[in-house]
Amino acid sequence: MKTQTNRLTFSQQFFIATMLFGLFFGAGNLIFPIFLGSQAGRNVWPAIVGLLITGVGIPLLGVAAQGISRSNGLQEMAGRVSPRYSIFFTCALYLTIGPFFAIPRCASTSFTVGIEPLLGENVNATVLLAAFSCVFFAAVLFFSLRPGKILTWVGKLLTPLFLLVLAILVVTALLHPTDRIADVTPSAAYAAAPFFAGFLEGYNTMDALASLAFGIVVINVIRGLGVTEPGAIAKNTVLSGIFSCLFMGGIYVAVTIVGTRSHSLTVSCTNGGEAFAVIAEHYLGRAGLVVLALTVILACLKTSIGLVTSCAETFTAMFPNGPKYGFWATCFSIFSLLVTNIGLNAIIAISLPVLMFLFPLAITLILLALLGNLYGHDTVVYRWVTGFTLVAALFDFVKALPKAITETPVVSAVIGFADSYLPFFELGLGWICPAAVGLFVGLIFHRTRRNRTAA
What pLDDT does residue 355 have? Predict the structure, then answer.
């Protein structure tokens, strides 16, 4: 019989925090901070602050929100808006952090960082990417259909090994930089508004979205260790999130500064994967690059297995009368394989409009759950805030579409309308004021309903 307690030991708390870090730590946690550093130049510090808010602060709030609101997962949280919205948002979020973008990005980053730098110039990278991705996803599917010890084994061995190599690279780069921060000219976006550029770059890590999926994992582990009192579960969930996100934030800052102080090496790079590979080869040489490639590939493999497993289990539970786990795992692996072969740059470009749409909805849901005790988690407040935010987020989605679409007369007119009437729209934050208006209206309806009930 399992002993029940409302306190965790330090070692148990540390285990949960490192587990959460392992869940969060994927391809985006490397390629976006290092590229941000290279692009931000002398404006790197305000850009880092923006990145830390969306890449660390909001994910922390996402984990805390599930503990404090005592929700049993994302579907229950989103269900406070409506049952249909719950299905829509849960599907959209899991597909985004799964087969649509995050899983293919892991495979593509593995190739870009691990394989491509070791190839000669006279090779067909497209064909090799196709061959690599077939092998990669064959392994992903094999282990996803057999979830169990492999994730624990890979997590305990590969993540520490990767962090060791990363630490060697970061320390070496910081001790022997090629550039001074003050001498690096920022790119256009980081020259005009570095804080907001860094804030939006944090969207690309997808960690805020992932926090809504991972929070229940942490809660279940805490319950499994014998913590049963809701307040204690909430407290330990928040502590685990704090420890994990502080560690993540430290890595972000270090990797970003490496990108800035190695700017001259990455001038011709078009994405963070290329930049990371170039910097690694410069500081560690070919031998170090081989070790780094092996650990990156295996770490991304671990992440992909975890995401396929998580997505397949979620869809199996969400649609109990539908296909079984094996069907979902196979479909997600095959779809991820196809998306991987469009290349890392294309994956990043296509994911941006979706992230611009989903992030405002995720942020407002997190804040509503955190502050829900102030209005009894009244559905009317959730609906008004989410409704106003969703409309505004659609404008941000349209603006982030490829230029070939945004330059058409109709779409250009829509963007012009939003630019004229939505505050902060030019910064990519056009949803903030509508969400505030929705909150104001929702609270009025809540207070009116409460007064009627009291009368």
Answer: 94
